[in-house]
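cache lookup: miss for this entity combination. No prior model stored, computing from scratch. Input as submitted by user K.M.:
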Amino acid sequence: MRRQLILLFGIVLLLWGAADAAFLTVVDDAGRSVTLDGPPKRIIALTPGNTEILFALGAEDRIVAVDRWSDFPPAARAKPQVAPFNPSLEQIVSFSPDLILSTHGGVEPLLPLERHGIRVMVFAPRTLDDIYRNILLIGRIVDAEARAEGLVRAMRQRVAAVVAKVRDAPRPKVFIEFDGSDPSRPFTAGSGSFIDVLVQLAGGANVAARSRTAWPQFSLEELIRADPDLIILSDASAPINPQTPELVASRSGWSHLRAVRLGAIAAIDSNAISRPGPRIVEGLELLAGLLHPDRFR
Amino acid sequence: MRQGLRPAPQIPPCPSFIKGGWGNVAPRIYVVLSALLLVALLIGIMQGAVAFSPLIVLKILLRSAGIPLGPVTWQPADETILLELRLPRVLGAALVGAALATAGVLFQGLLRNPLADPYIIGTSAGAGFAATVAILILPPASVLGFGSVALSAFVGGLLAVFLVYRVARVDGHSSPVTLLLAGVIVNAVLGYLGSLSILLFEGSEFRLRRVFSWLMGGIAVNDPGQLLAVGPLIVVGIVVACGCAVPLNALAVGEEGAQALGVDMDWESRRIIALGALLTGAAVSISGLIGFLGLAVPHILRLLLGPDHRRLLPASALAGAALLVLADTAARSMLAPVELPVGIFTALLGGPLFLFLLRRNGRESGWR
């Protein structure tokens, strides 16, 4: 009798525990296991990519604040903003959020907030598959699973369409300039960067793919040796000293590049190819259009 | 009358090398250092993202001088790389290295402080702040091949040194301690203003990498015309600096001692500060802030040659040039085609050598 009572008590405890159990436990990109007690109602998105995913999933009502760089869609600009470097914890607490979506580098100062029941997740995707996974994950978190699945399916289709179009095309050599304000060693996107992945999918050969860091300063000597077919300026839309094909041509030593002589210099919206969100497929289509103008339109 | 009651000031015995003259300057060391510099230049010209054999280098050089030697066995791009990019950069590294090492000797001697380096009395923060602001807001203008960042750095460095000099000057006299402290204070204030400007200016995140890389140093000769402007300034500066050897030697017995030896310290310190600031500013305008070299090279040479500035100044210039050419070659080649900040390699090449000599010489640091 006594043993049965203990057993019954144990079962009750178990059931009680199950009823109170986590709504969702996820492992984020920093390898941290984060448990949510219920669907978050007040979210702070600290990267433009996270903001764009939340908007695309129709969860904009749950966003209470965004970082200063979140400028898409235009409605995101109406949200209260949080400073991007070292955000004030007091300001963040004042929004009484229950979930913060951040990325590597910005998250450490926020971790103390977990003691106050504010969950912090790190999303740092490195490939397209990572982005799909994050969209599906955020879909589960904000209770928009069907919408997330539909979005990812559409993205996969558009990527597949681009890949199919460029499959048998010759791969032009391309140099993507990320910051050319030091023309003797411009910053570019090397292997391990998102942009390098996009260039491969778009049917291009990134001349900086050989570099072992993601955002290297690239040797002008090597650039002249590699002599790319196309130079793409992602710093043409930079708020400080935006670069133009004319400025590139006037740089010392650059006039020897075939792309400069032939005027094969194009500008691209850097946000489209660098934000790990739903718009990344637009960036891919833009890149493919620049690399293979004959196959697109 | 009261003055007559004081004991006569104790004049220290005058070491022979203070008396002046250029005897006993050990020509062998210059032969060795010149050979080292020549080897460094050759390695620097051959190595890089694209490597050339000595024969190809020779052929391209002769061909550009109008003496074609044999058929063209290289790609046309190689000519551009060697003549327009590599050669100016190697020469630029040699000039910057010589200027920084000379300025290091000048400031260590004048301030009588083993921790002094070319940047110590304001240049680093003055140039750093000006360059940061230029990177963040100025359009890329160009004068004599220098961009707005290089020009701002040059002017900012000189202004900061002038500010430190004026602040430290009390009753027409500036002591080493006040100069050092004023330098530390101005460096701190301007350094934090630089950080503040990064946080304040809209869109600065797009240029953070560039600011960071400038502050870590890297040889950038974007226009061979830059060498025509900086080269004479640095060469003449080093020659004039060698003329400061005797007053610097006299300073080894202290400021009063030097005065007693007939050295006009006010005039000399003004001349040495101006020279050091000009040399450093010229260097910074083509290299950003390269650390450690201007601190370590004078010490390394002092450990090898002793404290006589008549040898120390020219020898440091040669050794500094060789060290920076080698460091820049490593920065270009190590992870090619990725360029690394050259400051990393000045420390990696100079640091172990410095430590080895320090250990070997035991208590005798060559410092007096």
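stored under new cache key. Strands of chain B lie at 142-143, 146-147, 338-339.
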